[in-house]
């Protein structure tokens, strides 16, 4: 009898734990917006408006433009950041960004707060890197000088996505080389998937 070769199981990403308070807050928010109602003291039921939203979800896309700099390190193993100014830390991959977390469109903010999966595409110097992240109802998106994508589930006012597949140091080598060139245009596309 031949011995079967064992297949290696794929690594399962860790997702942040959903606490009862997070769930309660989300349901109250949906109720306030007329998306659900509390029925019979037992369950939240989607309203007609809520069902329509669930069945008509479309992708939402937003592009942020920033620029490369010879000062960029891109060595963070937890996050990726774009800044409107020119101050860099280990997570920054682009300076002089045209948008901050606070300046994302309302449509994008709603999609991100709905905890939708997000495809992140970074284009620079003819190269492209694509990875996935998640939105969260806990996102604040109130920072007016920075956008951050995190590999973990930590949230501050600049964070727009969490549980990302990549941090700055995980980007393709060609991308890392191009973002370290002064003035190179960097396009970061966030696409909230249905």
List its traits.
elongated, 4-stranded antiparallel sheet, 2 domains, 194 residues, single chain, alpha+beta, Jelly Rolls
- The helix tally amounts to 4
Largest pleated sheet: 4 strands, antiparallel
Judging from the principal axes of the Cα atoms, what is the shape? elongated
Structural domain tally: 2
How much is the radius of gyration in Å? 19 Å
> For the terminal residues, how far apart are their CA atoms?
48 Å
Quaternary state of the chains: single chain
The CATH architecture of the largest domain can be named as: Sandwich
Instruction: Please identify the structural class as seen in this structure.
Output: alpha+beta
Helicity level, as a percent range? 10-25%
Kindly state the number of beta strands.
10
Write the layout of secondary structure elements.
Elements: H1 20-32, E1 36-39, E2 43-46, H2 48-55, E3 60-67, E4 79-83, E5 92-94, H3 106-113, E6 117-124, E7 127-134, E8 146-150, E9 159-161, H4 173-179, E10 185-192
Parallel strand pairs: 4-5, 8-9
Antiparallel strand pairs: 1-2, 3-10, 4-8, 6-7, 6-10
Give a description of the structure.
This protein has 194 residues and is an alpha+beta fold. The chain folds into 2 domains: 20-55, no CATH class; 60-192, mth639 domain like (Jelly Rolls). Helices cover 19% and strands 29% of the residues. The chain has 4 helices and 10 strands, in the order αββαβββαββββαβ. The strands form 3 sheets. The protein has a 4-stranded antiparallel sheet. A hairpin with a 2-residue loop joins β6 (117-124) and β7. The protein is elongated and about 60 Å long. The model has no long low-confidence stretch (mean pLDDT 90).
């Amino acid at each position: 009898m031949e011995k079967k070769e064992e297949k290696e199981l794929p690594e399962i990403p860790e997702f942040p734990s959903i606490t009862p308070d997070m769930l309660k807050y989300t349901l109250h928010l949906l109720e306030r917006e007329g998306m659900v109602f509390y029925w019979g003291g037992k369950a939240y039921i989607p309203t007609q408006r809520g069902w329509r939203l669930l069945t008509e979800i479309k992708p939402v896309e937003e592009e942020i433009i920033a620029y490369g700099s010879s000062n960029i390190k891109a060595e963070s193993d937890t996050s990726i950041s774009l800044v409107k100014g020119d101050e860099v830390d280990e997570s920054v991959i682009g300076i002089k960004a045209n948008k901050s977390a606070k300046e994302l469109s309302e449509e994008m903010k709603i999609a991100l707060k709905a905890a939708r999966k997000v495809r992140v595409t970074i284009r620079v110097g003819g190269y492209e890197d694509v990875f996935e992240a998640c939105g969260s109802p806990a996102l604040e998106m109130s920072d007016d000088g920075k956008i951050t994508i995190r590999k973990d589930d930590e949230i501050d006012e600049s964070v727009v996505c969490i549980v990302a597949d990549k941090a700055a140091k995980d980007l393709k080598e060609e991308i890392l080389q191009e973002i370290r060139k002064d003035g190179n245009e960097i396009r970061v596309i966030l696409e909230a998937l249905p």
